[in-house]
Structure formats: C-alpha cells, structure tokens
Amino acid sequence: MNMNDFNMEEKDIYKLFNDVKIEESEFDPMDEEVTDIEKQKIKKNLKKRIKGERKFKPLKYVSIAVALGLICTIGIGTISPAFAENIPILNSITQKLNDEFGSHGSYAEYSQIVNKPVMSNGITLTINEVIADDSKLVIGYTIKSNKHIENLETFSLSMFLKIDGKRSGSSGSSVGNYTNDCTYVGSEEIHTDLVKNTSNKVNITLNVDEISNIKGKWNFAFSASKDQLVKNSVVFKPNIKLDFPNSIAKVDKIVFSPIDTSIFVSGNYKDKEKVKKNMEVNHDDSLMDYDYWVAYDDKGVELIPKGIGGGNSDSNKGTFNTEMQYDKLNKIPKYLTIVPCKITPSAGGGVSTDKNGKEVHYTVKTKKPVEISKTIDGIYPMELTQGKMGKITIESIETNNDSTTVKYRVDGKAPYFQAQDLWIKDSSGKEVDYKSYDIKKDNSNPNEFVRQFKKLDSNKKYTIFTDDFSNVEFREDLKFTINLSK
Prior knowledge:
Blueprint: H1 8-12, E1 21-23, H2 36-46, E2 64-66, E3 82-83, H3 93-100, H4 107-110, E4 112-120, E5 123-132, E6 136-145, E7 161-163, E8 171-180, E9 183-191, E10 201-211, E11 214-225, H5 227-231, E12 234-236, E13 240-243, E14 247-256, E15 260-269, H6 272-282, E16 292-296, E17 305-314, E18 319-327, E19 335-343, E20 350-353, E21 359-362, E22 371-375, E23 382-385, E24 390-399, E25 403-412, H7 415-419, E26 423-426, E27 440-442, E28 445-454, E29 462-467, E30 472-474, E31 480-483
Parallel strand pairs: 1-17, 3-11
Antiparallel strand pairs: 2-8, 4-5, 5-6, 6-9, 7-10, 8-9, 10-11, 12-14, 13-14, 14-15, 15-18, 16-19, 17-18, 19-30, 19-31, 20-21, 22-29, 23-24, 24-25, 25-28, 26-29, 27-28
Domain DUF4179: 57-145
Keywords: Membrane, Transmembrane, Transmembrane helix
Transmembrane segments: 61-84
C-alpha cells in the first residue's frame, strides 16, 4: 500500500501512539527466518487502524505504533561490534525529541554513545545512542540521503532487531522529525522481554534491509549496559489482583526510573475463545477490558501518560501482558490511585494482510463523541463543556510572529486527559496544525495548560473545539489504590 494513497489527515494519525496488541502464538518459533510475505504482513500491521481519529487513544502525538519485532537477517556488511560508551550526551537526539513531544525524562544522562554510520544505496543510517533497562531499549538514530525520502515517520527499527541473537514480538513507540529535506532524526522505544532475560550487558544487532521502500544493507552490532538506569530505578511489587468483567489482571510491579514511570500488568482471559473470536471478527486489539488507566499521585495530581496499553497476548493460552507508561516523577508518592477506562475509537478501520499477502480492508466498532465548539471572537473567558468529564475554560488566545498560544483551565475528573482534546478549525473545516505536540502544564497549578498551534491568519474566522467524551467509559466504580511501601 502506498502511503500517498492517504490524505494528510489520515497520515497524521500515525503520529498518535496507539496501543498495540501482539499475538505471540502466531510467530513461534521465533528463530525461523522471516519470509517476504511475513515481512509484508509486519509492514501492513504498522498501517492498521490508520483512520482512527484523536479519540482512539487520547495520548500525546508520536510518530507511529511499533507493531512487531520480527527481522530478516542478511549477515553481511555488519560493522565491528562496539560497546556503547556510558557518557552523558550533550546533544542527545533522544532527549531533544522526547522533550519536543512532551516526555521530559533524563534521557541524555542515561544515553550511551554509539555513533555508528552505515551507508547503502545512497542512504546513511546512523545509530547515535542507546538506553537500556530491564524492559526496553531506546535507540536514537539519524537517516540522511541525497534526496528527500517520504514517510520516515513510519520507519521502525524493531522489525530488524535481535538481542543476544534472538528475536521476539515487541511493542513501543517512535518520535521523530525532518531537520531538513534530506535528514530525519528519530528515537524509538522498543519494549521486549528479551532485555529482561539478558545480563547487564545487552548485545544488539540490527540488520536493516529496507528504509521507506528503498532496499539496502544497513547492518549494526553493538552492546549497551543496563547498569546505570537499573541502579537508579526504584521497583515496587504490590501483587494486586483485579477482577474485570472479561479478565483477571495482576499488577506485577511498578518501576520509577529516571526516564519514566511504568506499571506492569499480566493476566488471563475469563473466556479465551470469546476474546479470540472478537479479535478475528471485530479486529478488537485491546489487550484487556479497561486497558487505559488514568493514574493520580497521593496529592490527587494526574500522572502524564506516555504510552498506555502496549504489550502482547496469546489468545491460545488466554494470557496477556501489558504496560501502563507515564512520565518521570520527581518524587515517589505514598500511593497511586488508578481509574480504569475503556475508549471506543471515534472512527476506525484499516488494512491487514492474509496468509497469502493479500490486502484485507476492515472496519472496527466505533463511537463518535459529540463535538463542542465556540467561535473565536476575542472575548474571554470562553467555556466549553466536556460532558460528564468536566469542562475547559479558554483564558486567552494570543498570536505572535510564528504561532498561536492557547491558555486554558481544565476542571473535571482527569484534567490532563481532558486537556488533550482541544483543537481549532478554520471556516472551511480544516484543522489547524499544532506548533508543538507538548501540552505544557503548570506544575504549581495542575489544572492550567498551554497549547501552541501554528499561526492563525488574522483575516480568517476560526472555531475552537473539544468533545463530550461520550466514547470513554471512566470507571470510577473500578477505582483502586496501589500502596508504595517496601
């Protein structure tokens, strides 16, 4: 499928970090070589649910959702193995990109230098840096060419990855942007069980044979240490069991690290055949019912979501593993309060491939929330209701030389969750692009937010929007507390 077949609005959906469901049993044994048909299936899986709008998962924008971690080995032209240097990086690509997209962890401090370039077919792929811990790898990279390469937002390293000579299903996310017409910088976070089972030294190989439909041989071998990040992380194992309508889940552990906060969950389906049928017939990729968790600290302040709902499952065994990921916390709270939610996509559908590599188009169950809007007329405050969740109050909208800044207050059940649903359209109905994907929150007043849009034209009329969150089940009746004491 050619990405140019999609209009710009659909392409932009790739920037949403959607939860990803990996069916482990489909890919065992993982040590076999991957056929071209399987590789095409992986690529198509990256393009699933492209029509899902902002309410599929109301998270911050990122480039893509990494679908599967399968690779095809080439075995020639690999650079000499190197051990990543454990030195803080002054100009860390990973730090810069995650800051731009709203994840403000200490990436530079824990990044290890690789700086290995490989050139093939006119394209140079450089692995700049890597971070490793017991659940994930974060790899910063640069792609340069003598001409513009389109759609590098959908490029993923995970499908070419081996750890200690093994490959496995994985989930994760990627952020990136073009620094000029011929250069793209990216940072990909890959979650895989393989790093958990390694020693403190992680041996990584990447045998990349295609970049945005351009064939080549970009092969790497290097190592990274987990020591520093693991040593400076605090782990709690609360062993909490949860009885949801369709599954039994257990909170295995919570990790407070210098780059993020993660809640690891495992469980079993009550009726695995029902789940399997739902996957096959309805293309429901939810790992469990109520797979989006809104979390609050002991002061009632909402944790900022980083990536929620990614993981893997085995419908044949009826088991699943998932991870709820939030931004780094400066202080470990006494406890966390969790409200499980279920979000029905406001629009959906996509394309997958059958076992013969044939494209199959499908739709998913959707529920479109009601849009709430007001014309921007320069009179403030301006109130927009958000159904049972609460309301947004626009305090000011100011335009300078290159951007328009909206300052607003959110009152309701989950202020940051609600704050993400704010957008502007012109009189023709075209959405105004965001200048920055980072929603700035006032730490001293967590209900106050700032969002930047590209500059509004003073000669045009605009309308500001939110919605009523009617496609969100905010299950306060399922609320539970995780005590954080050793």
